[in-house]
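dumping this here so i dont lose it again. seq + smiles for zinc ion
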Amino acid sequence: MIRLLNLSSFSPFSIFNRTLYHKTWPKEFTYESARALENYWRPQLEESQASYSNNSEIKEKLPKKYVLSMFPYPSGRLHLGHVRVYTLSDVLARYNRMRGFYVIHPIGFDSFGLPAENAAIERNIEPDVWTDSNVDYMRQQLKEMAFSFDWNRELSTCKSSYYKWTQHLFLQLYEKGVAVKKEALVNWDPVDKTVLANEQIDENGKSWRSGALVEKKILKQWFIKSSAYAKSLMDAMDSLSTEDWDKVKNIQKMWIGNCNGCFVDFDLKYEDNNLENSVLSVFTETPQAIYGVSHVNINKHHIIMNNLRTDVQENSRLPCYAIHPFTKQKIPVYLRNDAEFGTLNAQGVPYVDSKLAVPSLNENEKDFASENGLDFKSIIDLSNGKLINSGQFNGQIFSEAFEQATKELLKINHGGFITSDRLNDWCISRQRYWGCPIPLIYCDNCKVVPVPYDQLPVELPKMDKNHKNLKNSTWHHTECPKCKGPAVRETDTMDTFMDSSWYYLRYLDVNNQNEPFDTKKAMKEMPVDIYIGGVEHAMTHLFVSRLICHFLYDQNKLPEKEPFKRFIAMGMVKGETYKTKNGRYVPSDNVIKKDGKFFCKQTDEELSVDFEKMSKSKLNGIDPQYMIQKYGVDFTRLFLLSFVHPKSDRNFLLSSDMINGTLGTLQKLWELVGTADEELNKDGSKKEIFNEQEYKSLKTELYKTRNSQLCMKYPVKYYDESYYKLLVETLIIASPVIPHFTSECWSKLKSHQVYDKLFDRKKIIVDLKWPKVDSDWLVDFNLNVNGKKVLTSKISPNDLEHLNCEKALEIFKSIQNFEQKVKNPIDNFEISLNVKPFLKATLNLNKKSNRSKEMTTETNENDKE
Ligand SMILES: [Zn+2]
């Protein structure tokens, strides 16, 4: 669409005319008019967004609201799930912007990962070429949907301008001992030829991506020590609201486990000098008993068993020993039966593979140590329960010495992080090409040497399929930064979850050339206020993002530990599938419906019908592009947000009822605007705009359209400008969902004089302010005690936003018979506040008791009414 000339210098009214698409207002709104007016308005919406994003005054003066949606993987084109997520995030961004916030609403691309590498091998093109062309296409699609992203902040994780800082972050983790290299039994995907995290394996032991049965393999890998942040991550979950985080919390709590112990890291020496010494990490709930250790037990699953003879019998001593972290004495290591190691995991293997044997605490170990002639000391004075023979812990009550023991271990870098017996460290090494290179160099003299910060980024070398020649390349063979001798680069790349663990921080300062982000900016603009994304990505990604933020918080780089305040877990979009008896999928255009049953057109076989996650193999995808071309952008946006709660899975149907319902909403508004415009055009007849009958029907139509209680008590009067105000406010409220449509409607109305005092007529609709509820309209404010309503007050909906439990309690305390109704002292209650924005509020007092949980549920039921 060619932009119209700006004629504002020629006519005082042209500012209004310029922004109107339809010179003549067609009586009926159709899909054709939708597409035409969308093409007309899109550049203007973009322009409004750009000028908002570039306005530094807004950034400084208004309170911030960070609205974030999970960035897409550039697979080629957007699918309906994406469009559902971004529509919601756009609506929330526009809504908050109209409410007077400085909204941060960025987008980028999570562009490292396997599909690009596989596509590159299949099609013989470079992965970056494939990725860039996908990004270009998807960016175009996102723009076409009029999502109000701040494109100045766009980033792509596969660009060195981004991954330079992922490497920087890795080096910081390495310096602080949170990134460590260790030999590990890893999950190996034999199809994708890569290591997988436990969380990337489904309940059947198959890879989340390739679907292959996962194997075990031993490799030296880089890990992020989740255990270092286990307790911090566990404790901070209390600060996350149950409403948004319930499901995520439950899963993460299960992963993390009960944080009641710590690892003691022993240096491990093999008797065979050919074996490289390593570290033996042993979990214990009683690190304070460390001086009473006679030996260490390991089971046959332990990684070091792969270095030792396989014919060792149970209960025999192994040809290696552990060095006591404090006394430096040699501690023998024994192979013991699984039964000694406690709780089993889902695969029937004990969670722990090693254990401290402390005879003072365990009679069996006492017998075992005596039988095997092992030295041990008694560490508890049985007369007073205090530690003896325990070095720096002597004289402390045994149960109270736990914390000091963990601190002492931390101090000497031999473990000590409070964690559970089941949380695995996060393996980030991937034996794949298309990822962020791990910025480390190996030198025979200096061992592991981090690439100096001023030499970042370590750029990805040119693609060599399957790494065949990478190890001979000049990229791989390099100079040791320390001794300048010959050295080699790490060829593994990082798990892409590392890229996405911090992207929302880079958005805040995307052009910073000196550091990942400016701390001052992060202090001001973090945390993310609303995070929206597919629930299937929620678990791993949210866990590692939290972990990285807890780490950065410790480095004084963030204002809070938790990165995301609210989380909206979008449900999946499922498409209808048709299947034969043999499980073959049949495309919908090959299906015929007879008497409520479905048949294959060709074979006449009856088909089973179901809803499943949309995918190519199931032939049930609906391309958003198809919807946009057929019905228009605003229709698609409105349709995707209608009918089903965003958090619920959606069985996606384009049924004629739903299509007509959605179109009907648009047509009704269109008619109302058209009629109002006609009436306002009638010269001097303002007082007789509507006859009684017309007025009534208009009002009814308006209420129906708005479909909300908001307008129920609005003082609409005959012959009054209130009606016209209400009509535009309705358009404003609808504008975050249907921005093109409402822009056109507003431009139709705003030339009329009646709007001069009501709204800023120079602005397009998305730049207008969100309507305020009339201050004299009050809503119910109830006090419930143990689920029963005992008092009712009134409150202005405008005050609801700033209400908290304390303020709410003050309001009720000022009511005369408060004490009489509540009966018990306030301290006896758990207090919670339930606010339905604009509609009502309830303060709940629930007696602190076992029953309080039931009561809360009851209260919520009552609230549904
Ligand atoms: Zn060196």
